[in-house]
Amino acid sequence: MSSDQQGDQKPLMQPFSVLEPDGKKESSYNSSKYEGKCVDPRLMTFCITNFVINVGISQIAPFYPGLAADKAGLTYSQIGLVFSINPLGSILFSFVIGSFIQVWGRKKCLMIALVVQSSVQILFGCLNFMTDNKNLFFSMSLLSRFFQGMSRSVYSTVTFAYVPIFWPGEFQKKLAIMETMTALGLLFGPMIGSVLNYAFGYSIPFFVIAIFFLCAEIPTYSQLPPDSTMKTFEKKKKLPIIKAFTSIKVIVTIMNVMSITAGYTYFNPFFVNHMQSFGISENIAAFILTIPAIFYIGMVNIIPKIGKYVKKTFMMSLALVVCFSGNMIEAPFWGEGNTLASVIIGLILVGVSQSFSMIPSIPQISEFLGPVVTDPQFKNNLTDMASALFIMSMGCGSLVGPLLGGSVYDGFGGNVNLTGSPPQEMVDQEREAFRRAMICLGLWQLIAATLFFFFGDGYKGWSDCCRSCSTGQTPSSEQEQQLTKPLNDDTSDDVMSDNDTLSSEASVGNDSDLLQGPPKKTITIRKEAI
Which of 29, 86, 386, 516 could form a disulfide with 229 if both were Cys (CB 3.0 to 4.6 A apart)? Predict the structure, then answer.
C-alpha cells in the first residue's frame, strides 16, 4: 500500500458527516471515541451476536430429529421441511428488508430482530411439551423456524451494511472476521446444543440463547449511532439483478453453489438416525456432524494461496467433483461396506469441497456479470450483485437440500426407529435407504458438475491447470501484480487475489459507493447505504 493510501486511511475514525434533507444542515456521528481501542465494542457486539444466532440455527441438528420422529411422530420429510423453512424465511424476507430499514432505521430493526430471535428460541424450547399433539408440534416448529430465518436475515443484513460505514478502509478484514464467526457458530452449534441438552434437558439450550439475545439489546442500543444520524435522502436505481439470469455462465455457477451447499445440508434431517445404525448416540453424532465445518475452516487460509496458480473455474469445478466423491463414499455407492469410517471420510471431502467452491464464488460470478451488465453506472456494483446471487444460491441450497433429502430418505424406507437394540433387518433397511438417498444427491451434483464444466468455463480451468502442470510454469511477476486488483476491476485476471473476500447476506442492498475505499476526511452517508 502506498504512503498516500496510508495517509488517506489515517482519519478513518473522524466524525461521520450526514447530510440533512435541505442539503445545508449537517449532523455528525462521532466515532473518535473508539479510536485506539484494542477491541472495537461495535465489532465485538456484531461478532458475538452473529455467532450466537448461527449457534441457535445449527444446534437442533443432533437432538431435534429424534424428538420429532420418536416422540411427536413426524416423518423425515416433515423434519426436512422444518430445517428448510429457516432459509426460506430469510430468502422471502430479503425482498422487503430494504423497505423496513428505510421506514424504521437500522438500529431499530436490529433491536426488533433480537426480540424476535429471543421469542422464537423460547417457542422452540417449549416444543417438548407439545409432542402429544403432532399437528401442534409440527406447526409450531415451522412457525418458529420461519421467523427465526426472517429475523436472522434482518440482523445479518443490517450489521454487514454497517461494516463499510464504520470501517471503510478495512471493510474486507472486518467482513472476514464476521464471516468467521458465522462459520464458528454453525460449527459449534451442534456441539453446544448437544452438551446443554445432555446436561440440562431439551429446553435449556434454547432458553440460554433467548436470554443472550435479550441481553444483547443493551450493547446494541448503547454502541450504535441513533438512526436520525444515519438517515439519507438520495435515491439510486436498483441493481439489475434480473439481468444475471440471461447469462448461462451465471446460471450454472449458481447451480454449482446450490449443489455444494446441498451437499452439506441434504442429510441433516436423517444423519443422527443413520449414526444410530452404528450404535452411536446423539451426542457423539453431533461431534461427527461438525467434521465438514472443521475442514472448511482449515482450508480457508489455504485456498487463496492455491487460487494464485489456478483459475477460479477450475477450483469450482473441482469442488463439485470432490463433493460428489465424498457423498458417494458416504453412501457408499458400491453397495457393501457401509461403515462409520466411510461416512467420516466422505464428510471430510464434503468440508474441503465447500472451501473450493464458496471462496472463489463471488469473484467468479462478478466476472461473469461483466459482459451482461453493460450500464456504466453499475460497473462498480458487480461485486454487490455477485454477493446477492451468492447468498441466494446458498439459501436455495439450504432450502432444497434438507427438504429433498428428508423426502427421498422417507421414500426409500428410512423412517425406522433405531433407538435401543433394533433388529438387524431394520438396520439394513435404514442403511440401504441412506445409500440410495445419497446416490440421488450424487446424481444431482454430477449433472451440476457437467453443466458447469461445459457452460461455466470449467473446461478452460482444467485445460489451463493441465497445461501448467505439464510445463511447470508459474504465474509471472506481472500476473502476480494483477492478483491484487479489486473485484470490481473489469480488467482483473481470472486467478484469485488475496483480497477476494467471501461476502455475506448483507451484501444485498449495500452501498457500493461506500465500498470504493476510505474518503480523506468524512463519509457522506447516502440512502442507498440503508
Answer: 29
CB neighbours of residue 491 within 10 Å: 7
pLDDT, position 344? 92
DSSP 182: H
| Secondary structure of 125-170 in HEC code, one letter for each residue | HCHHHCCCCHHHHHHHHHHHHHHHHHHHHHHHHHHHHHHHHHCCCC
DSSP for 280-300 reads: --HHHHHHHHTHHHHHHHHHH
pTM: 0.71
**pLDDT for position 176:** 67
Nearest to 52 by CA among 146, 161, 193: 193
Rounded to whole angstroms, what are the CA distances from 386 to 359, 508, 528? 12, 9, 17
Grid coordinates of 435: 445409500
Task: Please confirm whether the linkage preceding 332 is cis (ω < 30° from 0).
Answer: yes
Three cell numbers written together for 218: 443493551
Average pLDDT, the chain: 77
- The confidence score (pLDDT) of residue 212 equals 94
Of 116-120, 286-290, 379-383, 509-513, which has the strongest mean pLDDT?
116-120
Give me the residues paired with residue 29 across strands: 16
Tell me the mean pLDDT in the region 412-427.
86
Q: Write out the H or E segment, with its range, that includes residue 487.
A: none
As a whole number of angstroms, the distance between CA 321 and CA 328 comes to 11
Distance in angstroms (rounded) separating the CA atoms of residues 387 and 49:
22
Residue with cell 402429544: 132
Q: Which 3-state string (H, E, C) describes 412-434?
A: CCCCCCCCCCCCHHHHHHHHHHH
Closest CA to 244 of 372, 358, 361, 364: 372
Instruction: Give first-to-last CA distance, the chain, whole Å.
Output: 30
User: pLDDT per residue over 426-438, tens digit each?
Assistant: 988 999 999 999 9
Tell me, letter by letter, the H, E, C secondary structure of 436-473. Answer: HHHHHHHHHHHHHHHHHHHHCCHHHHHHHHHHHHHHCC
Range list of H helices, 201-332: 204-215, 217-223, 248-265, 271-276, 282-289, 291-300, 303-306, 312-330
- The whole-angstrom separation of Cα 118 and Cα 458 is 44
Q: Which pairs from 180-183 meet CB under 8 Å and 24+ separation?
A: 180/297, 180/300, 181/47, 181/48, 181/50, 181/51, 181/54, 182/50, 182/51, 182/54, 182/504, 183/293, 183/296, 183/297, 183/300
- CA gap 90, 395 in Å, rounded: 8
Judge contact between 430 and 416, C-beta under 8 A: yes
- What are the pLDDT digits (tens) for 2-48? 444 444 433 333 333 333 334 433 334 455 555 656 678 888 899 89
Give the other-Cβ count within 10 Å of 473's Cβ. Answer: 10
Candidates 75, 126, 121, 91; CA nearest to 273 is 75
Q: Which amino acid, residue 343?
A: V
Whether 489 has a pLDDT exceeding 60, the answer reads no
